[in-house]
Design goal:
Structural class: mainly alpha
Strand content: under 5%
Radius of gyration: 12 Å
Largest sheet: none
Number of helices: 3
Number of strands: 0
Order of helices and strands: HHH
Number of domains: 1
């Protein structure tokens, strides 16, 4: 996959933004519910499904992506 060559922080930030965007659409724009859902899904993915195993760095970077996605949602909405 092409994103295997991207820096980890770029991949995690983008995945956080996309994840919170999906959660915002799923919750009808309810920010607290979307943020909590996105964080929960992120931790579950990292714990059980990430082929590289657990990494606090990935969780934090994805969390920053979630925060960026929420900021964009508030700016554009």
């Amino acid at each position: 996959m092409f994103w295997y060559r991207w820096p980890s922080i770029v991949v995690e930030l983008l995945s956080g933004v996309l994840l919170v965007g999906i959660c915002l659409l799923w919750t009808g724009g309810l920010v607290p519910g979307a943020a909590g859902t996105a964080l929960l899904v992120s931790v579950i993915y990292e714990k059980f499904f990430d082929p590289n195993g657990w990494s606090w760095g990935d969780v934090v970077q994805r969390g920053l992506g979630i925060a960026l996605g929420l900021a964009l949602w508030n700016l554009l909405g």
